[in-house]
Amino acid sequence: MSPVEDYFVPWIKGVPMYISPHIELAWRNPNMARMMSNENPLPPPESVIKTIEKYARVANRYMDQGLIVRSKIAELNGLPGPENVLLGNGSSEIFDMIFRAFVAPGEEIIQQTPCFGIYKLRCTVVGGKLVSTSMVYKDKQILFDADAILNAITPKTKVIVVAHPNNPTGNFMDEKDILRIAETGIPFVIDEAYIEYSGINLERSMVKLVKDYKNVIISRTLSKAYGLAGLRFGYALGDRDVIMQIAATLIPWNVSTIAMWAALAALEDREALRERVEFNRREIEFYKQALADIPGLVVYDSYGNYMLFDGTDTGKPGKDMIKYAEQNGIILRGQEDIFGRNGWWRVTIGTHEENEKLVRLAHEFYAQ
Ligand SMILES: Cc1ncc(COP(=O)(O)O)c(C=O)c1O
Predict the structure, then answer these.
(1) How far does the centroid of ligand 1 lie from the alpha carbon of residue 221, in Å?
(2) Is the N-terminal amide bond of 80 cis, ω within 30° of 0?
(3) Does ligand 1 come within 6 angstroms of the Cβ of 94?
(4) Is 139 left (phi over 0), alpha (psi -120 to 50) or beta?
(5) Could you tell me if the CB of 171 is within 6 A of ligand 1?
(6) How many angstroms separate the alpha carbon of residue 194 from the centre of ligand 1?
């Protein structure tokens, strides 16, 4: 008799459950500032809370397939209708569904690093092979390298994924490069988790490509600008036939009734979204000004709700800054050494008071 371990599919053997130690730390220490997971520091608007309360009262019932919220999403994005929209339990589940639909064990997914970690995790679960290409570092800027992505394509490439804007670098890939990748015909996921921060009317979105490129799929989330990370609501946009085929992977009732209706309320509350986006922009400008006078610290502008800093030229490693902030009640996020530099650290925009405190701590730390 074989031990039960031998029955696991080989690609998940030994893969641990995903745990976010910094989020665990934050929930254990509610007094610490949560400036590490690109959450929205503002609580959900009243319109959403009221809807959550209303639908909590019918939580004994199964939901329908979300036609109303999917129609609203289609309308906001200039797409024909609900069949262009697939709902996920957060956009993390959207990547999972897309990879299940396109990638068989041993086939390849191309990403560009540094980037969000979920692509790797969900690639592992389907037995895919992750091909990481690197952004380029030039004149202190971190730039997308579409050629590196195009050169990495093989007959086994089944998905290419690019975040737009990217986490953690905060910048966009040029539209002409996005088009070069779209032209390959390979399923191309453009992760627009933060797109509303660059304009609530979605001016920078690549959703317009969906009409001409059946292989382009846009993923979105309400976890960021809409401020509903704990509610879990994400979606994919694309050609109707493609979306409906990916929908074969959908776990029935994957998005709760409460989340669907709360999402609709959030999507309809344009004022609440505007407030959050404007607040975020003001705070990013505040950081840029307040940290400009630290010699050797490079501050990266951002189209998201997070910023990247490089203190390598100050002579201080980024991990020491993160430790210093943590000792003083702020949880930040690290960035592993890249481009031969070790001064990186990242912040999620917090409340104004939290941002002021972090600016003070950064001045103290780099003056020591
Ligand atoms: C680039 C990017 N995409 C997607 C997500 C996933 O968000 P969610 O699963 O909450 O929708 C995140 C979260 O940090 C992210 O940074």
Answers:
(1) 7
(2) no
(3) no
(4) left
(5) no
(6) 8
Give per-residue pLDDT as tens, 236-273: 999 999 999 999 999 999 999 999 999 999 999 999 99
For residue 122, the model assigns a pLDDT of 97
Residue 207, φ and ψ in degrees, nearest 5: -60, -25
How long a stretch of residues is the chain?
368
Ligand 1 center–CA 364 separation, angstroms: 32
Extents of the domains making up the chain: 4-43+271-367, 46-269
CA of 2 to the centre of ligand 1 (A): 40
Strand, coil or helix: what is 186? coil
Is the four-CA dihedral 94, 83, 188, 340 of positive or negative sign?
negative
Query: Could you tell me which CATH number the domain at 4-43+271-367 has?
Result: 3.90.1150.10
Residue 149, token pair as written in the block: 């992505």
| 278: amino acid identity, one letter | E
Segment 40-78, tens digit of pLDDT? 999 999 999 999 999 999 999 999 999 999 999 999 999
Q: 74-120: per-residue pLDDT in tens?
A: 999 999 999 999 999 999 999 999 999 999 999 999 999 999 999 99
Structure token pair of residue 166: 């990217």
The response to whether residue 229 sits with its C-beta less than 6 Å from ligand 1 reads yes
Answer whether 101's CB lies under 8 Å from 245's CB.
yes
What's 46-269's CATH class? alpha beta
By CB neighbour count within 10 A (0-12 exposed, 13-18 middle, 19+ buried), where does 363 fall?
middle
Please tell me what DSSP assigns to residue 230: T
